[in-house]
UniProtKB/TrEMBL annotation:
UniProt xrefs under Pfam families: Lys_export
Keywords noted in UniProt: Membrane, Transmembrane, Transmembrane helix
Keyword Transmembrane appears in the UniProt entry: yes
Cellular component annotations (GO), alphabetically ordered: plasma membrane
The protein's name in its UniProt record: Lysine exporter LysO family protein
Transmembrane segments: 29-49, 61-84, 104-127, 139-157, 169-190, 280-302
Phylogenetic lineage: Bacteria, Pseudomonadati, Pseudomonadota, Gammaproteobacteria, Pseudomonadales
Annotated InterPro entries: LysO
Gene Ontology MF annotations: L-lysine efflux transmembrane transporter activity
């Protein structure tokens, strides 16, 4: 189990408390974060590849991922639709058409899957058992959270403006609450404990965090389920944003979860216009903080 799950929050808040003025340092941090994400995902795949009885568990994992994705999709879109009824956003009718960059982003969404697949292949066929891999993954995750905290603190964003962005805050809360409702619904379906199910529902698209944290706490099989659930959320978000954003901006922005402030932001910008950008950044920022907090709390309660 994850010992002291709440301790994973310390690097995030420590990083957020530090201020850097050096742009070169921030550029280095950006590339370090990108490299760490793929390294951690490779370690997640390694753990899956070396898991005892992997072949026998794949069918069960596929069912669990499908249930998570489907129930979260329905719950999230329903919650965001209700938000739109009570707090509608005005679509930007002058938004430009989606460019070919959208297709490149969609293909880029497959890269995390390739990183995990490479780890699975290495763990299953190439490498011997590595007993320190789990400890290394936890250490790299804490370093990643420290660097992400630095990025959030030094992104030139006003915390007050983000937290008081009415639409962004509403979208973040609607997604978080509807995800937890889905987690409650999934308790008997996934045949897992209450807090474990709520933790699985709290990834909000942050696959590099959810996969390794859940895997550390509940084992590599559940880590793989959490990772795939959040990667598939990101891919679905890239597909539905251009379809929904002209009529239901909150649904389009919100379903991407934490990725609305980074990975899915270019698609939100290109298909929804400039007016959607501050809302997307605010909702993604809030969910990026809520996700590790909620997962750590639920996993601590489950321990």
């Amino acid at each position: 189990m994850l010992t002291g799950a709440l301790l994973i929050l310390a690097p995030l808040f420590l990083g957020f408390a530090l201020r850097l003025e050096n742009r070169r340092a921030m550029t280095v941090i950006h590339y370090l974060v990108e490299g760490l994400v793929y390294f951690i995902l490779g370690l997640l795949g390694l753990g899956l590849g070396q898991m005892s009885g992997l072949a026998d568990q794949l069918a069960g994992m596929a069912v669990q991922v499908s249930l998570l994705v489907l129930v979260l999709l329905v719950a999230n879109l329903a919650g965001l639709w209700l938000l739109h009824q009570f707090q509608p956003m005005t679509p930007d009718q002058s938004a430009p058409a989606v460019s070919s960059g959208y297709r490149r982003l969609f293909l880029a969404g497959l890269k995390p899957l390739l990183a995990v697949l490479a780890g699975v292949v290495a763990g299953y066929w190439l490498l011997p058992d590595l007993p320190l891999a789990e400890d290394l993954a936890t250490a790299m995750l804490m370093l990643l959270l420290l660097l992400i905290g630095l990025q959030l603190r030094n992104a030139g964003l006003s915390l007050r403006r983000l937290l008081f962005n009415r639409h962004g805050l509403g979208i973040a809360l609607a997604l978080a609450v509807s995800s937890l409702v889905a987690g409650l619904v999934l308790v008997p379906v996934l045949d897992t404990g209450l807090y474990q199910s709520l933790a699985l529902a709290s990834g909000f698209g942050w696959y590099s965090l959810s996969g390794i944290v859940i895997g550390d706490a509940l084992g590599p099989a559940w880590g793989g389920v959490a990772f795939l659930n959040d990667v598939i959320r990101e891919i679905i978000a890239l597909a539905i944003i251009p379809l929904l954003i002209s009529k239901r901006p909150a649904m389009a922005i919100g379903y991407g979860g934490a990725t609305a402030m980074d990975f899915t932001l270019p698609v939100i910008r290109s298909s929804g216009g400039l007016a959607c950008v501050p809302v997307a950044i605010a909702s993604g920022f809030i969910l990026s903080f809520l996700s590790p907090v909620l997962m750590a709390v639920f996993l601590s309660l489950a321990a």
